[in-house]
Amino acid sequence: MYLDEIEGSPTLELVNLVLQKQAKGEKILSLAIGEPSFDTPKEIVEAAYNSMLNGKTHYTSSYGIPEVREAIRKKVLRRNGINAEVDNTIFVTTKLAVYASLQAVSQEPYEALIPDPGYFYSEPVILSGGKPVYYRLGENFSLDMDEVKRKVGNKTKAVVLNTPANPTGKVLGKEELRELYDFCCEKGIYIVSDEAYEDLVYEKSHFSIGSLEHKPEYVISLFSLSKSYAMTGWRAGYVVASQRVVHLINKFLENTLTCFPPFIQYASAYALNHGDSFIEKFKQEFFKRRHLLMDSVGRIDGLKLSTIEGAFYAFPRYKVKMGSVEFAKRLLERHGVAVLPGSSFGPSGEGHIRISFSGSEESIDQGIKKLGVFLSDAT
Ligand code: PLP
After folding, report:
1. In the chain, fewer beta carbons within 10 Å around the N or the C end?
2. Residue-wise burial string across 12-30, b where 16 or more C-beta atoms lie within 10 A, e elsewhere
């Protein structure tokens, strides 16, 4: 696999347009970016700072420092019901963990099933030498097991799962996850479960598919501190998986990055051990923003929105006849509002836009009003 075979980021063109406009001094209302508008809590920053002052500035084990691995073990038992040993854990940022996990389970030739619409999983599959195969989501973006079964073939090594989901805001329940789990175990297929938004669930509760295992075996659970504690720039996350998979991911880290910075790991251990109140505070804020967004989008005639169950995205279908890239570009050109085109998230995303409500209430309010004007002009 060569890097020049990988297409550029699907959203890059739009992001570049936004940057050009901002450089010219134009005011852009961004409903495109997927990161909390809050700063990292002071206590977590202090934990990093103090550890640096205490000389925690050297290489560490590629698996992670013992303190953070123990904090991961305790957290996944307490919050996710996953029964893991320290040896089942490794500290690695979630985005890299997607690739590293796929690399760990890959064999030549291999296929991995990825959700459509879904987050940007096709490139990591290709990078790890595999072929991405889309499985279309069912009604209201639910998991359609018949579709998964249809798409599984003898080269399938992994099914990628994302709940709560980006871009759809869907949260999957225990029953559907059990069905997937039973099926994958029977076939000997790994489940790469991306739970980056585990703490942003509004009505249901989050269920970790890894909790169905007595000890980690087929499920590779991926978690992130980015959204839970407003730590996107820290590159902090972790994987819980079988010792074999953890060992393989470690091989990858050992031979590439060596390790994540120790002060990031100490601060992450602090967040995992003492940070539940931060999660709750951020969640309350997102709850308000979600309400505002659902209310204002609900009043726009040209948009059809499913209930946002988790994460901080709305993924409405629009009624005008226009490609989603064209839609996003025109909305930006005419009204200075940035959203992402649904087609970036897979073929079934066409006809949708992704609206992020991770920004301020003011930007959501103004942006959605302008979106309403754009749609009424377009129809
Ligand atoms: N998985 C999903 C579904 C995401 O939306 C993101 C980031 O937006 C990631 C993984 C990457 O997480 P991190 O930035 O913590 O590596």
Report:
1. N
2. eebeebbeebeeeeeebbb
- Which residues line the pocket of ligand 1, CB cutoff 6 A? 34, 93-95, 119, 162, 166, 194, 196, 224, 226, 232, 237
CATH 3.90.1150.10 maps onto the chain at 3-40+278-378
Q: What homologous superfamily does CATH list for 3-40+278-378? A: Aspartate Aminotransferase, domain 1 (3.90.1150.10)
- What does the alpha-carbon distance between residue 47 and residue 75 come to, in Å, rounded to a whole number? 18
pLDDT in tens, 242-286: 999 999 999 999 999 999 999 999 999 999 999 999 999 999 999
Would you say 181 and 217 are in contact if contact means Cβ atoms under 8 Å apart?
A: no
Measured from the Cα of 225, ligand 1's closest atom is 15
Structural contact between residues 315 and 168, judged by C-beta atoms closer than 8 angstroms: yes
Spatial CA neighbour of 198 closest among 137, 283, 298, 130: 283
In 3-state terms the chain splits into helix, strand, coil percentages (rounded to 5) of: 45, 15, 35
Among the atoms of ligand 1, which is closest to the Cα of residue 162? Answer: 3
Class of domain 58-275: alpha beta
Choice from 33, 192, 227, 345 to test ligand 1 binding pocket (greatest atom count within 8 A of CB): 227
